[in-house]
Amino acid sequence: MKLLVYGAGVVGTQFAVRMHEAGHDVSLLARGERLAALRRHGVRLAEGESPVVRQVPVPVVETPAGDYDLITVFVRAHQVAAILEPLATLHGDVLFLLNWAAGAAPLAAALGRDRVLLGFATGGGTMAGDVVRYRAPSLLTRAYPVPIGEPDGRATPRLDRIARAFRTAGFPARLEPRINARLRTHAAFAVPLGQAAHAAGGPAALAADPAAVRDMLHHMRRNLAALPAPPVPRAFDALRTLPDGLLVPVLRRFLRGTTAAHSGLADSSLTATAEYEVLAEQLRAR
């Protein structure tokens, strides 16, 4: 597979490495300081807090050109509008693996309906200088493979080929016929979670404030109740039905754990804040 990975953040970098090491023809697109760091040292990876840093020579590009079998997009929701025009000049299917609750229509309007695929990358980690510190696999992450789907829910040969290639590279993927509902459900949960963690000063600080966790839970419930279709996966129904006395301790335990610590919840940058604002607006519009 000739593959362009659009976005060299934590998850995009991990994905590019796995596909490169699986033998695919990978180009990792980066800009600015990230591009300069990758050209100096290549991709640098470490698991969690391990002192062992691995260097991988993934090809890096600043300005892609030509035909690709697949373009995978790993950017934040508020950055999508700015990259649609450059994507329109390239050839190949485009799989958006990101937080997104606006559906396929604005993407298809720029790229063409037949080129757009939707999904969500479930990996995580942090960026420490130019080293990607990725989250070690756990029972929780294994239980939620990467959902990918056609916007209209069809099962197509191209989707099956992509999922098989991802799995072979160690990037677990499953076909999701209700991908739009899946992305909206995730946004309904992630926006209150991210905004509450940022307001508190990080997931551990949020866990220390039971009242703030309870307030976050109530925001999640309002979002989930307003969805136009049942949540996907249905496990999110538990957030609407189980009592506060049970859910608040569970959420606090999650916020104190390594999964939350090595995720975007610890990112208090303006970029992270802007993404949650865009996702919240997308939810309101839907």
Topology:
Blueprint: E1 2-6, H1 10-21, E2 25-29, H2 32-41, E3 43-47, E4 54-56, E5 60-61, E6 67-73, H3 80-88, E7 91-97, H4 105-111, E8 116-119, E9 125-128, E10 131-134, H5 139-142, E11 146-149, H6 157-168, E12 173-175, H7 179-200, H8 203-207, H9 210-225, H10 237-241, H11 244-256, H12 258-261, H13 270-285
Parallel strand pairs: 1-2, 1-6, 2-5, 3-10, 6-7, 7-8, 11-12
Antiparallel strand pairs: 3-4, 8-11, 9-10
Helix pairs in contact: 7-9, 7-13, 9-11
Quick rundown:
Its EC number is 1.1.1.169. The chain is built from 13 helices and twelve strands. It is an alpha/beta fold and 286 residues long.
Characterize the structure shown:
The chain is globular and about 55 Å long. The strands form two sheets. Strands 5-2-1-6-7-8-11-12 form an eight-stranded mixed sheet. It is an alpha/beta fold. It is built from 13 helices and twelve strands.
Shape: globular
Rg result = 18 Å
Proportion of strand residues: 15-25%
Helix percent reads 40-55%
SSE string: EHEHEEEEHEHEEEHEHEHHHHHHH
Mean pLDDT: 93
**How many strands in all?**
12
Which spans have pLDDT < 50 for at least 5 consecutive residues? Answer: none
Q: How far from one another are the termini?
A: 35 Å
Q: Helix count?
A: 13
Major beta sheet, specifics? 8 strands, mixed
- The secondary structure category is alpha/beta
Strand order of the biggest β-sheet: 5-2-1-6-7-8-11-12
GO molecular function: 2-dehydropantoate 2-reductase activity
EC number: 1.1.1.169
Keywords: Oxidoreductase
Enzyme class: oxidoreductase
